[in-house]
Amino acid sequence: MTRQPRTLAALLGLLLLQGACSTFQASTEAAPDSQIAHAGAGLDQPLVDEDSGATTAPADAAPSLLARLLLVEGERLETEGRCRDALQHYEPAALQPGPTQGQALAAIYRCQWQLQQPKAAQATFGRFIAHELAQGRLPLKLLFQPGESRYLADPRVSGPYGMWLRQLAGPLLGSKTCLSLIGHAGASALEQKTADLPLRRAQAVQRQLEALAPALTGRLSSETATPDEPLIGSASDDWRDALDRRVDFKLRPC
């Protein structure tokens, strides 16, 4: 049986801004050994309480070396299937102000979901949404079945989508932000057969959000990505090109 790549664990659909991971990894690799040793001295300290009030820093602020190191080690452990251990690094990383904060929250959510901790995962996802909205972005992707406007059938991927949208609806209502839903299609003949498939996917998500929060009507719009360049482009209509069959979220002024 073919093993799906680890990125399909992040097909929990929660993909952050491109380049975020490579940025902190490159910065860590470039740091002098003395700095890494100094920052690493705090890695085994007790976790700070989540209610301690870590601040949200601007997205363009410099990430702390400690946050980068915590994320690198957490990702290594997660890759090895050791999510419980990874959380011991992701959780303090999420309390470090800076551009890696959202990435750390996403990683915590991902591990809590894989560890079958739905209440904790829902609470973390709410923190993630609040953080990302404060930064003026919403890096979520909802994935779809080949040739259809219904979500990917794998519950490991699409199972939490209803919770995602519920957690998004409230904060969005309380903001002064409008939202564009951008539909995409894959490169296969099946995906390209119907020209309005990307739009129908976006409209399906829009209807779901408006059902959850009718007051959002008028603040949401559905669009087709133009030009629609697949992220993967394998045209395989399976898990390999699942990211091509998606709806993205784009915040915009009302």
TrEMBL record:
It comes from Malikia spinosa. Residues 1-26 form the signal peptide. The lineage of its organism: Bacteria, Pseudomonadati, Pseudomonadota, Betaproteobacteria, Burkholderiales. It comes from the Bacteria. This is OmpA family protein. The keyword Signal applies. Keywords: Signal. InterPro entries: OmpA-like_sf.
